[in-house]
C-alpha cells in the first residue's frame, strides 16, 4: 500500500497529454484499456447482485423509459405526460428553453425527485417506488455529471477521481493511481491532479467530474449542459469524449443542452421539451426536418443565440 512502489508509468503526463483538443483522438486504445482494467478489478458483491437483478430479459428493451410522467411544483405543472425511451448504446439529447424541465427530468431519472404520476424504468425496473437503498444501486449504473461538477471541495482532483474506485474496492494503490491518472489524462486535466476544485475553471471542474463519473463504470451517463460556461476547446474535448464513450464502449448517454451544434454532433434521438410537453421525441433527422412551428422557432432562434453565461 502507499505510493512507494510507483513506477514511471504512473506519473502524470505533463509534457504532451493535456494541451490540445485533438490529443483526445490519439489515445483511443487507452480509454478502452482503462475501462477494461476497472472492470477487471474484483467487483464487490452488491454490484454483482444488482447486475443480476437488473439484467434485462429482452436485449431490445430500452435501458431508460419514461412513461406518462408528470410533476408539479407548488401546483405549477413543470412536466406533463412526458414519455420517451433510450436504447442501450444510444445518445438522447434533451433540448428546450431554460426552465422547461430538462434538469428536473434528469433528477427524476436519478430518483432525487419523485413524479406525481407516471412510471420511470431503468433496465426494465420501475424506480419510482424504490427505497433509497435500491436507488443507491441504480445511481451506480446511472451517473450524472453535474453542471457545477459537484466535486468534493476538500479533496484534490486525484482524490476526487479515486473516490468511486476506492468505494468499489478490488484495486491496490498502484493500480488505482495508474487508472486514476489515465482517466484524468483522458479528460485533459493532468496538469491539475493535485489541485483543489476551488482553484479550477468551470470547464476543468466538469472535465474532472466526467473522469470521476467514468471511474464509477456506469451504464448510463447523464450530462447537464456540459458545454455551458466552458471554453470551446474544452467543449470540443468533452464532446469528443462523449462520442468515444459511445462508439468504443457502448455507453448510453443523455445530454441536456440548448446548444444545437453540440446536439447535432451527438444525438441519435432528440426529446424537445416545450411548455411542459414533449413536443418532439424521435430521431435527430426528424427533429431537424420538423415542420412544427415550435421546433422551427427553437432551431431558428438557436442559430442567432449568443452563448449563454
Ligand atoms: N425542487 C424544486 N422546487 C420547486 N421548483 C423547482 C424545483 N426544481 C425545479 N423547479 C422549477 O421547475 C422548472 C424547471 O426547472 P429545470 O428543470 O431546472 O429547468 P431547465 O430546463 O432549465 O433545466 C423551473 O421553473 C424551476 O424553477
Ligand atoms: Mg437545467
A few lines on this structure:
With 309 residues, the chain is of the alpha/beta class.
SSE layout and pairing:
Blueprint lengths: L27 H13 L4 H10 L9 E10 L2 E11 L4 E5 L6 H8 L7 E6 L2 E2 L5 H10 E4 L11 H12 L4 H14 L15 H14 L4 E5 L7 H18 L2 E5 L3 H7 L2 E6 L2 E7 H5 L4 H12 L5
Parallel strand pairs: 3-8, 3-9, 6-7, 7-8
Antiparallel strand pairs: 1-2, 1-4, 4-5, 9-10
Bound molecules: adenosine-5'-diphosphate (ADP) and magnesium ion.
Highlighted features:
alpha/beta, Rossmann fold, six-stranded mixed β-sheet, 40% helix, binds adenosine-5'-diphosphate, binds magnesium ion
Number of strands: 10
Helicity range of the residues?
A: 25-40%
CATH architecture: 3-Layer(aba) Sandwich
> What's the CATH superfamily, by name?
P-loop containing nucleotide triphosphate hydrolases
Bound molecules: adenosine-5'-diphosphate, magnesium ion
Order of helices and strands: HHEEEHEEHEHHHEHEHEEHH
Textual characterization of the structure:
The N terminus is likely disordered. The chain is α/β, with parallel strands linked by helices. Helix content is 40%, strand content 20%. β7, α8 and β8 form a beta-alpha-beta unit. It has one domain: Rossmann fold, CATH 3.40.50.300. Adenosine-5'-diphosphate binds next to α3.
Amino acid at each position: 500500500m502507499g505510493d512507494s512502489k510507483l513506477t514511471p508509468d504512473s506519473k502524470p503526463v505533463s509534457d504532451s497529454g493535456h494541451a490540445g483538443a485533438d490529443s483526445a483522438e490519439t489515445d483511443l486504445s487507452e480509454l478502452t484499456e482503462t475501462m477494461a482494467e476497472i472492470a477487471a478489478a474484483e467487483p464487490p458483491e452488491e454490484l454483482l447482485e444488482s447486475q443480476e437483478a437488473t439484467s434485462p430479459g429482452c436485449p431490445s428493451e430500452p435501458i431508460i423509459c419514461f412513461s406518462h410522467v408528470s410533476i408539479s411544483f407548488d401546483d405549477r405543472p413543470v412536466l406533463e405526460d412526458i414519455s420517451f425511451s433510450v436504447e442501450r448504446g444510444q445518445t438522447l439529447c434533451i433540448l428546450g428553453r431554460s426552465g422547461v424541465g430538462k434538469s428536473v427530468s434528469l433528477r427524476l431519472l436519478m430518483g432525487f425527485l419523485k413524479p406525481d404520476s407516471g412510471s420511470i424504468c431503468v433496465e426494465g425496473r420501475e424506480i419510482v417506488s424504490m427505497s433509497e437503498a435500491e436507488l443507491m444501486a441504480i445511481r451506480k449504473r446511472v451517473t450524472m455529471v453535474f453542471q457545477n461538477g459537484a466535486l468534493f471541495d476538500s479533496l484534490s482532483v486525484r482524490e476526487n477521481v479515486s473516490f468511486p474506485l476506492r468505494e468499489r474496492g478490488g484495486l491496490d494503490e498502484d493500480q488505482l493511481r495508474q487508472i486514476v491518472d489515465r482517466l484524468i489524462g483522458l479528460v485533459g486535466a493532468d496538469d491539475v491532479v493535485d489541485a483543489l476544485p476551488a482553484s479550477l475553471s468551470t470547464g476543468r471542474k466538469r472535465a474532472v467530474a466526467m473522469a470521476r463519473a467514468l471511474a464509477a463504470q456506469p451504464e448510463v451517463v447523464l450530462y447537464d449542459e456540459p458545454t455551458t460556461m466552458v471554453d470551446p476547446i474544452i467543449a470540443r474535448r468533452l464532446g469528443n469524449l462523449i462520442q468515444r464513450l459511445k462508439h468504443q464502449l457502448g455507453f448510453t448517454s443523455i445530454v441536456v443542452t440548448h446548444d444545437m451544434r453540440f446536439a447535432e454532433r451527438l444525438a441519435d434521438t432528440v426529446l424537445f421539451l416545450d411548455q411542459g410537453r414533449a413536443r418532439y421525441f424521435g430521431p435527430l433527422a426528424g427533429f431537424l426536418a420538423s415542420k412544427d412551428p415550435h421546433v422551427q422557432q427553437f432551431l431558428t432562434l438557436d442559430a442567432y443565440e449568443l452563448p449563454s453565461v
